[in-house]
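Task: fold both queries, return tokens.
Query 1:
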Amino acid sequence: MTLSTISVNDMHCGGCVSKIEKALAGRDGIRATFVNPARRLVLVEHADDTDPVSLLQIIEDAGFHPSLSRIDSGRRGGGTTERQRDLLKRLGIAGLAMMQVMMFAIAMYSGAFTGMDEAFERLLAYASLLFCIPVVGYSAMPFFRSAVASLRTMKSGAGLSMDVPIALAIAAAFTISLMHTLTGTGEVYYDSVVMFTFLLLTARFVDDRLKARFEDANGSLAALPEKALVVQEDGSARPVPLAAIPAGSRVWVEQGNQVPLDGTVSLGDAVLDESALTGESDWVRRHRGETVFAGTLNRGAGFQIETVAAVDDTRIAGIASLAARAQADKPAVARLADHIAARFVPAVLLLAAATWLCWQIVDPSQAFVAALTVLVVSCPCALSLATPAAITAAMTRLRQSGIVLTRSDALEGAAEVDAAIVDKTGTLTVHEPTLTGIRWLAQPQSGTAAGMNRTELAGLAAALERHANHPLARAFVQAYPDVDAGLVSDVETVPGAGVQGRYAEHVLRVGHAAFCGAEEDDARAVYLSVDGVPVARFAISDPVRPDAAEAVAGLKAAGLDITMVSGDAPERCRALAEELGIAWAARQAPETKLEVTRELQRRGRRVLVIGDGINDVPALAAADVSAAVLESSDLVKGNADVLLLSRRLGALADLVAVGRRARRIVRQNLFWALAYNLTAVPLAALGFMPPWVAALGMAGSSILVMTNASRLLAEAPRPAAGAAAAPAPALEAR
């Protein structure tokens, strides 16, 4: 299957979302459609042989103006800027006309009380008409085009967009005013027409700017340069479009520029700012042969890379694709809001007609104004944007902390978790064996070895381990980097046991306890023997991650009970758990990790599981929210709701804090949208609201929703308040 991303800049409301979804539903080759109105994106999962251009045609037939948009490029800004420029021109004309028409309207209203010559009143009406014509004919044209397209697609079962009642209100008010002007009888509503258009365009412009803010925040992750410097055979470099650069190309990265493609350093050293990709602010150094990723920023001298992937296969492209899919995916509350919004427009049209009929009976002079106000005041836009705007802002904020959600429901789940199960090895600890201590068992009693001090003996053990490929051998290499492997001779590796060699006339062995003649046995310890006598035990363990204590404290502050569930030995688990102040369970198989998760859920707990190994997959799959690092295997990532772009555990506290903050904002937005419509529409129908107030309310409601959601971008995530939970008792080790 292929995922195509389509930008639809003229998508405004829940009706637009419904139309696009219905237009694409059931088409051959289309598996799923995800629509994100907050970012004006449509993601279509379709068969590989489906031409993306045909998808554009389907959406265009539904009355929109779509364009293909590569989510990995992040370059939708041009279209957005052009749209804002066009809106600004239409807004400027509407604003100038509004100021003039309102001056005429004030004079006409004053004349109604103090008396005004009929000829002068008609002159003001014609002057108002003159200024109103460009507003209706130019400034309001996007509403008319969208409404006509929406009506044209009604027969296909697509819903009506919010532009239908908007266009109807503008057209009706202008037409009635024109008729009254030409006949010299009745009221004119030019002031309402220009003010309504101006306020609507203002709302659209502000709405666009807020959405552009989301795009700018996303751009730090997704934007890549248009071209890269490809090194030619003669050593010269020339700019080539990214899409034309295959894997295996040599690319030069200049100082201050972004790394354009994934690759390995082939010339020079790289000093990189990887914050856009991992959320970590510290610069890192990459040497020759090490991997660098597209989207990171070169803070040092220029260097050369050999690309390992085309632009569409880069790591950043995969992350952006996951994030876009999660943003477009709708949680249950958003689907309910869209369901209501899609039926809102027909209900408003019926209510406006009913209002007109009722007022014809009560007071015919108020019928048109009341019906017009009902059309103007209703706003399903706020309802349909309430959830996706908050989710988009929250996901953007999380990505700045190095977190990518693979499904939007995970954000709601993160707000509800109250227990966490954490793996030990590779999660709370650095998955890199480290020499942590030496216990001397005996001193050699004969020959040359008897005269060696402990430093020399440790160096000989390190020299032997330099000939081994076992992961534990790396601990000796790091602890004794200057030891020469040539100190020992006749080296022989014994598979599953250790390494044997000679120093002078003595036989040295490094490896398991039995191999070295030691009676004790510890799978994570390495022993040294000289001439068959065990002389030293080297303790090797994975060091605790530097931010583990801070991360645990953050999760506790958010009210989570934390349990470390590990397959490691009890003594190691106990020591780490006591250091961090958390509950623990040792020697847990994948099946028992799953059982621990389910037992917590049976007690009514909402469980967050964090792991990075295959043995964590069952628990990850069963968790309410699951998290894994991006470097995990595909099987692990496939069962994770949350991906950590780096191994910074503090991001987990950010996840919970932002999730809870987003939940509050979604509830605030939905409350406002529902309260506004349930209050304003009846007031308009009963005649208690003039059209200009209705226009102001409609414009302000959607702006308020977007502004409220954008607060998530401005505030640094912090753990939610809550009492720190006391650690649960240790589970029985098995």
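Query 1 returned. Query 2:
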Amino acid sequence: MEKKTTITTRALNGLQRITSSKSTKRMASMALAVILTPLIWTSCKTKTVVTTTPTTTVPKAARDREVLANNQMNFMQRVHSNQVYATNIVGSISLNVKGAGKDITVPGQLRMRKDEVIRLQAFVPLLGTEVGRIEFTPEYVLIVDRIHKEYIKADYNQMDFLKKNGLNFYSLQALFWNQLLLPDRPRITEADLNQFSVTFSGGQNNPITYQTGNFNYAWLADANNGRIQQTDINYQAPNHGASKLVWKYTDFRALGVKMFPASQVFTMSSSAVKGGQTLQVSINMNEIKTDDKWETQTTVSPKYKRVKAQDVFSKILSM
């Protein structure tokens, strides 16, 4: 009987120790949880702060400027890409010249070879005999008067109107070929396009401008296809007067995969010219060809008299 009591007592004591041990572990676990919870929370918060990148909001004005700059460059690229690929442009024309109270229309010929020559010839109606020609090359300007057997040959600095408008061969080539121009460039590359400013007016044409020194250049380009419709060059200086050139383009026709204006009208006026005369020249091409079987240089007969380049307008009108 005593032995049974002893066994029971030991069993109860062992059970108490086991219970006490489980209780102790439970309490220890709870204590550990209490201690670790704020640490875990702090760790999570710290991780969130480290991994979260604050967002930078670009001001609307800056975004708008970037969009406008991209749109302007895209439009300038469209304008620039309209230039024709041809090396030669030739065709019979109807040539009209107005100025000093005269209004003359004659048949003629336009011949242009890229980077070499621009030649305008005027003929006697019906007979087809040449009356005169104007020839622009990179080195000089040549005006031949067949009627009076006279000619002018001068570099661009000797031609007052051309000099006042900052025009050289490459500027004139850009005008005749319906292209953009910069006064100090033989041709425009895509790297030059950011020098031009474009205004999106919402109209049929978008104005393009460029200004340097006393010169202001302006173009009107079709808002849809980028074709140049008009070029304006204005020169204004207090001590040298004013000069203006307006060049308009219409009747675009296919020339290869590009389009070329069959009709060009340019008006020139300058206080540098005697009497401040205004001269208007209209060129209407009957056809546009790319023939290359023609000479680029004119040889003047020794029988012709060379005259000074002072009064070019009068010489043109006297042909």
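Both queries returned. Flag for query 2: The radius of gyration is 41 Å.
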